[in-house]
Amino acid sequence: MKKQLAEPFLDELFGKEAASTFLSEHWPHSHHVRHGSMERFSLISKIDDFRNNERIIENLRDPVAVLWEDGRRETIADKARLLSLYRSKEAMFYIMDLTYYPEIEAMRCSLADELCIPKQFVGCEGFLANSNVNVDIHFDHETNFMLQLCGKKHGPWRPTKY
Fold this sequence. Notes:
The protein is α+β, with helices and mostly antiparallel strands. A 4-stranded antiparallel beta sheet has the order 2-1-3-4, covered by helices on one side. A hairpin with a 4-residue loop joins strand 1 and strand 2.
């Protein structure tokens, strides 16, 4: 018998009824927005690092992509430099893999199972910035489930033409 470490991700994200509506009416062809507290995620809400951005930086396992307001992108591994950039509100950090947190890995596996897609096609990335950091607008080719743990995100949200 397979041990499930996480509650079904879509149930936690949307609620049981809304999850089935999402799967039948939205996935994978249209967007769907849901708001709520991070506390509804049984595993993510237990990750202490996610309550303190500086701790996330201190515990990084890999270099991160630093996204500058002027569109530049630089890969940086030096945690002291990253902390300095974070504190000075100069850039946003793109953390390419958060699955070193066992809780994130469990949710990634749950999501892959629920969507019936291979686990290697489900990534868990993170963006981290202090307040009032701006970066260039972009679009994603992939389907995204975005969980904003704290703060506010401002900017144009629009469906793509493609």
